[in-house]
Amino acid sequence: MGLDYGRMLDLLGIEAQLLTAATHDAHVDAPVWGASGRTLGQTIRHLGDLCEDTLSWLGATAAEQRWDLPDRPALREVTSRFAVRLADLLAEFGSRPPHDRCPTWWPEQHTVRFWLRRMLHATTVHRVDVQAAAGVLPTPIEPDVATDGVDEVLRLWFGYRLHALGITATRPCSVGVYVADRNWLVTADQNGAAVVSSGDVSTTTPDAVVGGDAPAVYLWMWGRLPDRAVETSGDLDAIAQLWGLLQLATR
């Protein structure tokens, strides 16, 4: 299950091109709406940092050539750095099979595939940021990509990263999450958080349910869309706690 490796590789290249194209008439200090709190220039710089970090995790030769930036670089400079480092990543991913072993920060997967998936979703979310900040109509996210992104943010960030950061819920809650053809049951209490696939959230009687179109749920979980973009029912405080914990896990 999951996105095909070759398709993820193609999609990562496309997302990078869309992001770069959106910067042509943009201002480096344009604010990015949503949870990140960054400017357009800071967003691209951050994404370039992620590229360099991933090259290091992969043990790539290109990781030895760090590209240091000044404190206040021009937009063209941060964009060029991102484009070059992303190209290095694409070359590295393209030269290795998805099951090739490498270190990661998620205990359940230690392969190159983990990093391709991680960078695809990081680039997709930040591409949306950059397009919005630049006043460019956001390119739609394909539903199956968004569905995979929902699974990733729930399992990696909510299910594992919260524990690694030592963050727990203030009160017990359970939330069913659904998009087309996929359902998850998310639980959290003072002892930790857990995520399991659920055949049908309507049969699990959670405290609340949140769902809708996969791209909307995906971007909502990353703090890029407001609550009205998704469908909710049940205990709204439980949904608010889920969203708040996700923002702490992914910041």
Automatic annotation (TrEMBL):
Residues 144-240 form the MDMPI C-terminal domain. Pfam families: MDMPI_C, MDMPI_N. Coiled coil: none annotated. InterPro entries: MDMPI_C-term_domain, MDMPI_metal-binding. Residues 19-131 form the Mycothiol-dependent maleylpyruvate isomerase metal-binding domain. It comes from the Bacteria. GO terms for cellular component: plasma membrane. GO terms for molecular function: metal ion binding. This is MDMPI C-terminal domain-containing protein. It comes from Saccharopolyspora elongata. The lineage of its organism: Bacteria, Bacillati, Actinomycetota, Actinomycetes, Pseudonocardiales.
